[in-house]
Each structure stands twice: as C-alpha cells, then as structure tokens.
Amino acid sequence: MKKYILAILLLTFGFQGFSQNEMPLSQRLKWWQDSKMGLFIHWGPVSLIGKEISWSREGYGKAKYDSLYMRFNPKKFDAKAWVALAKASGMKYIVLTAKHHDGFCLFDTKTTGYNIMNTPFGRDVCKELAEAAHEANMPICWYFSVADWKDPDCRNPQTNDVFSERVLKQVQELLTSYGKISLLWIDFEGWPSPVQPKKVYDLARKLQPGIIINNRLEPFTPDESHGYIGKYADYATPEGFVAGYGKTAWETCTNMGHQWAWKFNDKPRSLKESVHTLLRCVGGNGNLLFNIGPDSSGIFPADFAARAREMGSWITKNEPAIYGTKGGVYTPSDDYVSSFKGDKLYVHLLNSSRNDLELPGMQARVKSAALVDGTKITFTQTDKGVKLNFPKDKIDSVATIAVLTTDRDLAGLTPIIPFSKSKSMGYAKNATASSSVGQFYHDPAAAFDDNPRTVWKIGRRKDVDFNQYYGKNIHYLSEEVMSLYEPSGWLETDLGAPATVGKIKLGETKSSNSEIKKFEVQYQSAGKWVKLAEDTRMGTWEKTFTPVTAQKFRLVIHEYHGYFGINEFQLFPPDK
Which residues, at least 6 apart from 237, have a Cβ–Cβ distance to it below 8 Å? Predict the structure, then answer.
C-alpha cells in the first residue's frame, strides 16, 4: 500500500501550473459532440444470473454475489466483434464498466484480487477492448465507480483514506495502461464520493489532458447527478429519459432494453423508439449513450444486435442530419426536432401520421427545401413562420427529414422555441430563481417551457463547505444531506410588460418521500410583493381569482421535504 500512496504522490506532484496546459473545454468536447451516440456496456459476473449489476447484490445475497466471479468464463468474448457491432450501429465511441459499484474490475488491477484476471477467463477485458478500439479508430472510454460496496474500507471513518488512495491507483491504472482514453464516466450511487472529487479530476487531467469527464464526481443527490455540472466536470448526464434542449453539453444514458446488465428474456425497444431517443438527443443539442448488456458468454443478444444494426442502417441513410450537427435552431417539440450545420437546417418530422409542419418564424431565408434523398418539398415562409409540406408517399414510419438550405450560417441564430401548447402568458419568458439544483433542465426556465419532463428545483446552500462531506456514509435521502440545500426559495417570471392574469396553474413533480408543504403565489405591485394565493399542498394545482395586472409573478416555496420539482408555472388571462 505504501508503494501505491507513493505513486499517487509522485503523480500529483507537479499539478501546480497544470491548468496552463489543459485543453480548452470546447476543444475537448468537439469530437464527442460531433459523434452524437456511443455504446454503453454494463457487464461482469452478474450476467451469470441475469440480474442488475451491483444493485441486485443485497437481494441476491452479498456472499453469493461476490463469489460469482469464480465461475465467470465468457469464452465467446471477442473485442473486435464488440467494436464492429458499435460501428455497424452508428455508435461512435464505447464506454465499458471497468468497475461498477460492486467493486469487480474488468481490468488487470494490482489493488485487489477481485478482478477479471482471477476468474476462469483470466484475460484483461479492458486491454483487449482498448486494443480493438484503437485499431478501429474507435474512441474507448471507461465507466468507473469511485465507490466500492464490497470493500470494507469504503466510507469507513478509520480507513476511508486508505480506500481513497486505492481508488486513485485504479484511476491511474485505467488511464496509463490502455493507450488514449477519450472519456472517463464516473458514477454516483447515492452517497457522496468517498474520494475528494478534485483528486480524481486532477489526476485524470494529468494523465490524459484531453480526456472528457462527466458530472458525477460532485453530486449529493440524483438530481445533481443528472443536471449539475459543477467545477470538476465537463457535461451533464440525465439518465433514462430525454428532457429537452440544453445550451450546455449533456448526454442521456439509457437502455435499449430494460436493465443495465443482461437480463433473461429482455427485449429491445422498437426501431422507432430507439431512433427517436437518438433524434431527441440530437435535436436537444446533446448526445445519447445507448446501453446493451452482453450475456455471460460474452456476446450481445441476437435480437439486440439486430436492432442495433437496424438502427445503424437507418442512420446511414440520414447521416448528414445527425453527425457533426448542433441541436436547433428550432428546439424540440412533440412532433419534430431539428439540427443544423452551416447553412443547412434539418427538420426531423417524428409524427408519421402527418405530412405538414408549421414552424415559428426565423431570421434566415429558406432558399430551398428537400428530403435527404433530394425529393423536393413545397414550403412557404413569412415573418411569422415556415410551413413545410412533405410528399405523402415519402413519409418514413420512423422519421422524415427535411433539409432546408438557408441564406446564412445558422450558428448565429438564437434557439427558436415551438409554438406554446398551453398558451400560458409566462411561456418562455425571462425566468429567475433564488437557486437551482442544476444548470441543465433543473434551471428556472424549466418551469415555463410547456415540458413537464423539465423541472426547477431549489439548489445548494451557499454557507456550506461541501468538501467536508466527501467520504462520509450519508445517503442522499438522509436529513443530513437534505439540510445541505436551501430550506426555502422562490421562482419568478417577468412577462416583459404589465399583463392581466386571472388564473394560475402549477405542477409539482415529486416522489413518495417528497412534497411541498407550504407555498405562496405573489405578484409585484409598486415594487413590493403582494400575496395572490397560498396553500399547503400542490400536486397539480389550479386557482382562479380576481384578475390582477402586473409584470412580475413569483412562486415562493416556504416549506418542503425531499426532492420536489416545479414542472410548470403557468399564467392565464381571466376567463371570458
């Protein structure tokens, strides 16, 4: 152990001045953002029983789970075949679970015997996959859990420092033994990181200056692991869903099936759902990390592999609208998303039951419109909008893409939101809040976008030294963690000019252990906030009242428990 600690000290010595050599964020992210989709691979001895990786350990029996590695022998594992599947599926990078929360390592680590070299298989999976990926010019990336549920030193008050050094040694091994590693995907499992985030971040930057690092080193709650980027991260990681549009870098991680690790009798999602998941990420200006779990023999299930290749075939026909694009200039709606590159705007029609679209006006002139295959599309454009008519016999059952050639580079245009579904007076108006739990889809604007998948949540307290909590054994649902967030807060919209409001609707997103207990709606009059309504329970809340005229309205949360969210704050004129 002394040798491991000395190695880390030697590595960390000289970090002073390192920031001067750090690659700029935009440069680090470019290849990844251009790639749009990667293959996520959750795999390990757990595939022998078809249960979820790590999370099934306690229910299955810790001793039984921890001994699965002694009979793990995936004889059909073929790293080149894995890489070939990723390429055929349109995936541009691979992220493998080098170590999950259960502590099992798929690499030849010197820190623990609980690794792939001590299985009947006895081969370094990370080494073989990295070599195959490098040979195919496929970026290889590691998923890595800084926690270890099997290691008794993890978050142990007496020995967590020893564990922390062991983790740093594992990071060193992963980032020095396998050539260029393009991305480090850290995970959050419900407790603060047992290792100081800065130590992991700085070490990774030192060893691989161009590496991309996700946002799960710092979180104290799942909300933060999804939307809070913080100081030691490059992008946000929503999990299991696609929220909306984000100006900051983000990547949805989700399953093609219904479990991260291989599962008995699991079935892949339909081609349409799979492609739409990707397109909503592309149109939302993000990435998709699509997971498929290999079985215990080391191969991907045949139906999943077939779906992945089918997805790749569809993407091949529409490549210009996907890879190397930015999301927008139209932000996503129920029926469409859009992407652009240079003067080309790609409008992805997702609703196959229609062949027309009406888009809001944009400050670029459409010179021509056609499908990806060159078939002409009729269109009309005014200051108020752009109308597209797709040929009925050319509607794709998955998605139909129009290519609009415009008179300018579209990068300079401000994102254009869809027409409002609710007709709320606060829709997309300027929004502010006392604090927010994240920079992406938990920000104030999330409550004014007609999208219940995005939610505003109260953020961290400013008077707390969060570093002191890393390494502690405190769960995100504990009162100790909840006390780290503001006990109250407000959400405000500015309508831009005085308007008469007669009805307000509020939407609360909550789980069984969270709820708003006291709130108030206010409006500003003569520079002072005046109470309009109050209540002790929200849920889906609607109130009609004597009309008031004001420019600014505010929701004040006085008391809450858990991790509630405000998904919509809508204002309407008086009923006629």
Answer: 214, 215, 216, 225, 226, 250, 251, 252, 253
Whether residues 26 and 63 fall in one domain: yes
- Give yes or no: residues 307 and 331 share one domain: no
Domain count, the chain: 3
Q: Could you tell me the residue range of the domain that residue 220 belongs to?
A: 2-316
- φ/ψ bin of 333: left (φ > 0), alpha (ψ from -120 to 50), beta (otherwise): beta
The pTM of this model reads 0.94
Residue bearing tokens 């967030």? 485
3-state secondary structure of 260: coil
In terms of phi and psi (left: phi > 0; alpha: psi -120 to 50; beta: otherwise), the region of 124 is beta
Answer yes or no: do 28 and 176 share one domain: yes
The span from the CA of 150 to the CA of 114, in Å, is 10
Q: Are strands 344-349 and 336-341 parallel, antiparallel or unpaired?
A: antiparallel
Exposed / middle / buried, residue 517 (Cβ in 10 Å: 0-12, 13-18, 19+): middle
The pair of structure tokens assigned to 163 is 């564990």
Residues 397 and 436 in one domain: no
| Distance of alpha carbon 502 from alpha carbon 304, whole angstroms | 52
User: What's the farthest any 2 CA atoms get from each other in the chain?
Assistant: 78
Domain co-membership, 257 together with 355: no
To the nearest 5 percent, what fractions of the chain are helix, strand and coil? 25, 30, 45
With beta carbons less than 8 A apart as the criterion, state whether 136 and 78 touch.
no
- Let me know: does 278 contact 265? Beta carbons within 8 Å: no
Instruction: With respect to residue 157, please indicate whether it lies within any of the assigned structural domains.
Output: yes
Residues near 131 by beta carbon (within 8 Å), at least 6 away in sequence: 79, 179
Distance CA 111, CA 145 (A): 15
422 belongs to a structural domain: no
Rg (CA), the chain: 25
The kind and range of the H/E element at 550 are: strand 540-561
Secondary structure letter of residue 250 according to DSSP: B
Fill in the amino acid letter for 455: V
In a domain, 360, yes or no: yes
Q: Using CA atoms, how far apart are residues 271 and 471, in angstroms rounded to an integer?
A: 43
64: number of Cβ within 10 Å: 10
- If one counts every other C-beta atom within 10 angstroms of the C-beta of residue 511, the result is 11
* Residue at 419 is within a domain: no
3-state secondary structure of 231: coil
User: What single letter denotes the amino acid at residue 416?
Assistant: I
In this structure, are 268 and 343 located in the same domain? no
Give the residue carrying structure tokens 């073989």.
128
Same-domain pairing of 262 and 227: yes
- Backbone phi, psi, residue 474, to 5°: -125, 125
One domain, residues 278 and 369: no
CATH of the domain at 149: 3.20.20.80
Splitting the chain (576 residues) into consecutive groups of 10 residues, what average pLDDT does each group show? Answer: 41 38 86 98 98 98 98 98 98 98 98 98 98 98 98 98 98 98 98 98 97 98 94 96 92 98 98 98 98 98 98 98 98 97 98 96 97 96 97 97 98 96 96 93 93 93 96 95 96 98 95 86 97 95 96 97 92 92
Report the C-alpha dihedral over residues 72, 73, 76, 79, rounded to 10 degrees.
Answer: 70
**C-alpha to C-alpha distance for 451 and 76, rounded to whole angstroms:** 45
